[in-house]
Amino acid sequence: MTDRELIVFLQQQISELTASFSKTIEELTQEVASLKAALLEKDKAAEKMKRFANVHLPKKIETSKKKTPVPKDKAPAPTPKERGNNGAKRKVHNNIEELVEEVLPGDACFDREAAVYLFSKDVIRYEYIPPRLIKHIYRLKKYRMGDKFYEGKAPIAPFQNSGFDSSFLAYLIQQRYVYGMPVERIMRYLEELGIDMPKATLHGLIKKSAEMLDRLALVLKDVIVSDPYIHFDETYHTILGGDKGSRKGYFWSALSHQNNLIQFIYQNGSRSKTVFTNYLPGSYAGAVQTDGYSSYKVLEGWDYPKAIRLGCVQHCKRKFIEIKEQPKAGAIVDLYNQFYAIRKKPKEKWKEESLEVYQKLEKELRKIERDPQTLGNSSLRTAAAYCLNELESIYNIVTSTQYDLDNNRIERPMRYISISRRNSLFCGSNAGASRTATLYSLAISCRLNKVNTFAYFKDVIQRLAESPNISKEKIRNLLPDKWAEQ
């Protein structure tokens, strides 16, 4: 191509590019103009709405520039943004099994070998895997070496001729006596896991477990009665048997304040004073906190010369709460509440200030007792009479700094019996109620000492199976408080 032809060719290319650029510029100019027009229309609409608001809406009322002070005891309500979870520190559960899974980008264009690793971010999801029962087969190998034979041995089973190990027994006890599941419900749950087990078999396993754990009962009693501060209470349960088909049987309970160990006592469902006196020796030298049940009054007599009885402020107060619609009842409740307010102060002030409230309380109760106008008011007089009978036991509490004002420490564990009343409805016999007392004693003692009940029963049942002649000293280490230390 000659120079002249090259120049002509380049001129043609330049003219074509110029025409293309001109067309593109014209299109962009039209688009900008349309956008400008749309913005102008939007501004006009906004101005119109502003004029409408100024004409039709009421003007904002100007208030004082002083801000209303916020009470110190009442923090301002958080805004929705502050209540959000963005950036919040969530609880990290470090005591459960962890599974770490690496997740790569799922994009089809991603090439791991060609990519450069930058960093990783952990996202936590808590996953639930249903529990499983395992049929563990121990294939015992047998060998001969010369004239001798050698054979492998399976772990010792808790019960003879039984294929259930201590973990299965611990599961039954935990579900029945910690989480309140009736045996029928446990049986249905096992069916969902693939085991069809008769109800009689489950009852039999629980019965044998209780008989094995009975060896801990005597040691548990010795530990509790050696504590200088004990709580006592009692409650009922329906027991099958007898002429009427069912009857009300009573469970007594004793709790060691120092060791947080509780023991339930069942003697044919009796609520007689002898159940209490048979359990607590007459030589006991310490404090026993109870409610106002008459059987506990024996502590104030010559049968227990070295013991003192502590009352329960809550039981006294409850008598007046039940008739709170009466003006005089409310005044008595306020006085009992003052004992709790004093306990929030330094201990040096407890005795002096509590005695002042105690004197006012006694004065008001005496007024109710002697007031002729309350003669026909049986509910008020009954409440006052109960509290007057408990005055001495309340005095023993308020003049000391080492005793609780109420018996709630043992009242709370007694709710497990209430749950059993609701879920299981009854105990099948006196023997069944005695087993219930044994297993509840250990299960609730575990809860009071923050011990994993499944791990505890699994370990203790296995130890008792392996050491049938275990000594009393070693049994002491199997109680929940010492077991937790190990």
Task: Describe this entry's structure for a reader.
- By secondary structure, this protein is of the alpha/beta class.
- It has a domain at 313-406.
- The chain has 17 helices and 7 strands.
- The strands form 2 sheets. Strands 5-4-3-6-7 form a 5-stranded mixed sheet, sandwiched between helices.
- Strand 4 (246-256) and strand 5 (261-265) form a beta hairpin.
- The longest helix is centred in the N-terminal third of the chain and has 54 residues, at 3-56.
- The protein is flat and about 140 Å long.
- The termini are far apart.
What best-fitting shape do the alpha-carbon axes yield? flat
Q: What is the gyration radius calculated from CA atoms?
A: 39 Å
Count of individual helical segments: 17
Tell me what portion of residues adopts beta-strand conformation. 5-15%
Strand order in the largest sheet: 5-4-3-6-7
What is the H/E string?
A: HEEHHHHEEEHEEHHHHHHHHHHH
Helical content band: 40-55%
Structural class: alpha/beta
Number of strands: 7
Q: For the report, how would you describe the main beta sheet?
A: 5 strands, mixed
Mean of the pLDDT scores? Answer: 85
What distance separates the N and C termini? 102 Å
pLDDT < 50 runs, ≥5 residues: 55-65, 80-84
Write a concise keyword list for the protein shown above.
alpha/beta, 486 residues, 9% strand, 5-stranded mixed β-sheet
In short:
Helices cover 47% and strands 9% of the residues. It is an alpha/beta fold and 486 residues long.
